[in-house]
Amino acid sequence: MSTLRCPSRISAGILVLLLGFPDSGHATLEESLPSYHWSYDILDQLRLRGYFTELFMSNRPFTRGAVAKSIQQVAREIDRAQIGVTQSDQWLIDQLRNEFDEELLELRGLAGNNRIKLGFTGNLDAMNQSKGLEDPRLIHYGVLNGGSRLREGLRSKISAGIGDNLTLYHTLRFDRNMKDDPTYVGKFFMGFAGFTEQAYLQGRTGRFQYKVGRDFIAIGPGKSGNLLISDNARPFDQYRIDFVAGPIRFSAFGIQLDDVALDSVIVRGQGPMNTARRFINGHRMDVKFGSWANVGFSEIVIYGGVQRSFELAYVNPVNFYHGVTLNDEEALGRPANTFGSLDVDLFPSKNLEIFAEFLVDDVKIERANSSDLEPNRLAYMLGIQYANPFRIDGVRIRADYTHVANRTYNVLFNPWEKHLHRNRPIGHFLGNNFDRFQIEASGWMTRDLQVSTRYERLRQGEDNIASAYNTDYLSATVSQGYSENFPFGTIQTSDVLNLSASFVKSIDLRFRFDLRVAHVQNMAFGGRSGNQLQMIRVGLMYNYDRLLGW
């Protein structure tokens, strides 16, 4: 019980604190747009159609103020006839205008000087999910346990401005779906689980944006997953600094991950006796080439240990992490796990997008001993989107392929360097040792109704990030060489058809229907094959915000 009461006291304390600021300013401009917000999909559709070219689409979350400024820019382009607007384009732009109307008023100087925003977002889902998805090795399609259920969730929200360019934000999440989530770390009370999902101070000074607290991070142009850092894991406790100068954006951040218990010794009232602390440092450069190309370079390092903390060599935003790691591991015995990624998002013409992401975990170059025979730990994603095919307004077609090699995100030594946070993959939600091909068609039938259908073929090997690190390559000699099949080990293959529909009753009231059926071979790696109704879901989302201004 105390676990859920504590955040409530925090919320009340924050509210009292905020009311004590006599000069509170614009409450929402520097507020992050959480990764689950519906407007990201709308922005992605409109970017494909030639709008919102100034946003760095592969580096999220956005602030509400940044989106509002982009809406203003789109309005100017339309007024100057710089871009042609179709009927469905206008439907989507209207949705964004209605969602960000308060921020647009603030930008025009028509809102009150002192404002606090209170609100909540509620979800209600009726769901039936196949029992065949409960195997802990099958992370795909979400991680909820199977069965029929009706679950509700609630997110409370408090946002307030301190001056014109600083926002304090807090979100509590209570959700009965987490009762069915085998990866959940926390306490249950009366069937509910709860935790502080977002809690940060974020501001802007000139070209610099800065943040301290808990929030989402998502990097990469992928439409159904990201390779380096995604929103699959719980939001991160972090510090972050962004610098924007025209077509260039530089980001640097530090994250404290959950600790890892090194043994089973538990001290009553204190927890595990021996734990390893875990950290991530990262930096990224986004570069725009006009309105037709966005290129991003990223590097992160995961490190930790019994007595380690943030290290200045990695906190340094312009240091080369991999070089530091190579030297420190050899000279000081302090290993770390580095990742590098390159992503490209091309818009060669209006209505056409080509995107790719390439991630390097480890590449073996030498062939001096058996350990050098370890297969490379790599991942890549390739995709294409096309809007309004055959001049059918409102339709979008997407195809993509994702390949993540076995052992990627995993480590042989030091389990605290695994690419996991609170039991969930930090990178792609499917983990590693899989490939997936998807093709999807979606379209707006009316101003309020969007329907989509997607086929995917997923091949998933039995090993994953949480598995013991496979060392079969050590049994071979350099002269013999070593190779292995992909995916590695026993494979489950799924051919899946997804059908979805969403109905926008209003900006704050939305309904959704999802149906997923599949033919699965070697189900749960147990040799069985057959057809499977994997999920049927009917859900609604309601959002309420109240601005207190004076």
Task: Give a written overview of the molecule.
- With 550 residues, this protein is mainly beta.
- It is built from seven helices and 26 strands.
- Helix 2 (39-48) packs antiparallel against helix 4 (87-99) and helix 3 packs across helix 5 (101-107).
- The two termini are 37 Å apart.
What's the short version?
The protein is mostly beta strands and 550 residues long. 14% of the residues lie in helices and 45% in strands.
Helix segment tally: 7
Main beta sheet: 18 strands, antiparallel, barrel
- The fraction of residues in strands falls at 35-45%
In terms of structural class, how would the helical and strand content be classed?
Answer: mainly beta
Number of strands: 26
Which radius of gyration do the C-alpha atoms yield? 24 Å
Q: Per the principal axes of the C-alpha atoms, what is the gross shape?
A: globular
Helix content: 10-25%
Mean of all residue-level pLDDT scores = 89
Uncertain runs: 1-25
Q: In whole angstroms, how far apart are the ends?
A: 37 Å
